[in-house]
Amino acid sequence: MMEKGTISIHTENIFPIIKKFLYSDHEIFLRELVSNAVDATQKLKRMSSLGEYKEEMGDLTIEVSFDKDKKTITVSDRGIGMTAEEIKKYINQIAFSGATEFVEKFKDKGDAKDIIGKFGLGFYSAFMVAKQVEIISKSREKGTEAARWVCDGSTEFEIGPAEKEDRGTDIILHIADDSEEFLDEWRLKGILDKYCKFLPVPIKFGKETEQVEDGKDEEGKPKYKSVEKDRIINDTDPLWTKTPADLTDEDYLKFYKELYPMSEDPLFWIHLNVDYPFNLTGILYFPKVKNDFEVQKNKIQLYSRQVFITDEVKDVVPEFLMLLHGVIDSPDIPLNVSRSYLQSDSNVKKINSHITKKVADKLGELFKKDRASFESKWDDVGIFVKYGMISEEKFYEKAKDFGLFKNTEGKFFTFDEYKEHISANQTDKDGNAIYLYTTDPGKQDAYIQSAKNKGYDVLLMDGVIDSHVINFLEQKLEKTQLKRVDADTVDKLIDKDEKIESVLSEKEEEKVKEIFEKAIDNKNMTIKVESLSPDEMPVTITMSEFMRRMKDMAKTGGGGYAMMGNMPDQFDVTVNANHAVISKILKAKKEEKKAQLAKQSYDLAMLSQNMLSGADLTNFIRRSVELSAE
Ligand code: ADP
Ligand code: MG
After folding, report:
1. Which of 326, 419, 483, 574 is deepest in the core (most CB within 10 A)?
2. Which of 592, 583, 594 is closest to 509 using CA atoms?
């Protein structure tokens, strides 16, 4: 017999739950209390500007202080303040109704992170570090009495009148024994720097010394003295909150240094400014990434109304832009950013696709406005564009108009321009455009030169991501194939069905093949005799595009290809029937001589593929010396 019932959870249980779930993030209590102080100050300013508050507002600076002996941390503001009634309403009731909601959700869904996110890390997060919390507040309302509220983290509280001259609120935390680490100037300064650096109301914490002019000495030179003054820890108007039209390049560079003091200047930046359908501001900087793996440590920072939330921006920022730097600020991102929460949030998805669109638009704009400068930054920017094209269809749709190919001569082409550029000379007999590329212009130089002699263009594809780009573009571009320059002999790379007559008879070709097979004697080398143009090399060693891509995929651990990783490399050795050296080999009287000459031309081909080493190289050099002495 099944029994149904309701799980009853008492409010006394809430504090242990809060403590437990927020365990790893205790330091955020300060963010929450300072944000509340900022909210109270902003509310007062709004009331004042609406004429609802008619007194002088005075100095609105928020103060954070601590007392090591008394074991207290205090956050004081000069905001709207609370009457005893308001404390009861906002601190007691609201929080507890929030807690009831928390319990409701907890029993249905069982996803704790989700619930904590909705519950909010508000005022009660103070109990993560405090054994007792005091509120001393005086309302903005004239003639109201100041109030004092004390609570030790249970559901019991005391409230009564207090002595307080000024309008505003002091939150006094009596720090628990296990949280005394927070009674430390640098620890607190560190937390404030992390979370509160760009809050919109000045926050003072401790003192700093400054050198100020203090009259002149006998020679008339200015004298200086050290003066202690309040240390303000925040920049109340960070750059991203300003209007882009009012800002100069210097402003953006200066702000970048403020965010990442030790870093090299970025290439350019995008100022995001959206108010519909969601609210989002921010500045994204494109760093120089070429060969710089250090670059990752400067992460994009996520803010909500100028309060720092996290630098784990996964899901908010598309993956291919994770290497960017800068800040994003959106009140529409739920405050407690936990991954499972974000993924299910539709705003997060919208923000993500908006950022993708904005970045694509900005890149397109830079390309149109100043192509030369865009090209000069391509080596750095290209990585983002290529990664973006592969990973996001929507980005590709825009990027295909500004994505660039770079050839071995350092010239840049858009995809359309390139098609146009090569179509006359690089279309094969089936009407396919064949794009030739090199992954290493140094090593593949001989092949590049052969291709150039034929009037072919060769693309530079030497980036880490380029092998993926090649596969991707073959799927995207119609009737287009990409082949590495050394995938075949130059006459066969682009098969135009142009037959070159052979100077050798069929029988002679058979003989040539035999000589080479004997001389080379390696079953990983497939020998064929073909009639190429006489000015091509006598012997060429190639690996077919198909074969090489399979090998590459095996190397990067691609699924079903793994077994190929253990197979020896298979090469094609093409002997050029029309080359004078081959005729000479046939005409040689002695078999030994035939073998020697065959081996020599084979070794030359090996050498140009960087495949000659060890004893083979030594033998080749010795043989070359002998041959030149003859
Ligand atoms: P939230 O800030 O999300 O509303 P909190 O738990 O942080 O939730 O705070 C609860 C309420 O207590 C606030 O909405 C506000 O009305 C009141 N409050 C908290 N701190 C202050 C303060 N320093 N000055 C005035 N009111 C405050
Ligand atoms: Mg709050």
Report:
1. 326
2. 583
Question: Which domains does the chain possess?
Answer: 3-205 (3.30.565.10), 239-374 (3.30.230.80), 403-498 (3.40.50.11260), 501-544+551-630 (1.20.120.790)
Higher pLDDT, 206 or 119: 206
pLDDT at 474: 93
CA 515/CA 145 separation, integer angstroms: 110
pLDDT score for 565 = 57
CB 183 within 8 A of CB 175: yes
User: What's the pTM?
Assistant: 0.79
pLDDT of residue 112: 36
Q: How far is the CA of 49 from the centre of ligand 2 (A)?
A: 23
In the reported structure, the alpha carbon of residue 90 is separated from the centroid of ligand 1 by a whole-number distance in angstroms of 7
Sequence-distant (≥ 6) Cβ neighbours of residue 46 within 8 angstroms: none
**Residue in 123, 124, 128, 336 to alter for ligand 1 test, most ligand atoms within 8 A of Cβ:** 123
Confidence of residue 15 (pLDDT cuts 50, 70, 90): low
Q: Is 95 close to ligand 1, i.e. is its CB under 6 Å away?
A: yes
DSSP assigned state of 167: S
Residue 168's alpha-carbon distances to 39, 45, 59, 237, in angstroms, are 12, 13, 11, 23
| pLDDT, tens digit, 9 for 90 and up, residues 219-237 | 989 999 999 999 999 999 9
Nearest protein CA to atom 4 of ligand 1, as residue: 122
Buried b (16+ CB within 10 A) or exposed e, 349-363: eebbebbbebbbebb
SS3 of residue 3 by DSSP: coil
Query: What's the pLDDT tens digit per position in 249-280?
Result: 999 999 999 999 888 899 999 999 988 888 89
Is residue 262 packed enough to be buried (19+ CB in 10 Å), middle (13-18) or exposed (0-12)? exposed
Cis peptide before 277 (omega within 30 of 0): yes
Strand partners, 149: 135, 159
Q: If you search the block for the tokens 């869904």, which residue do you land on?
A: 109
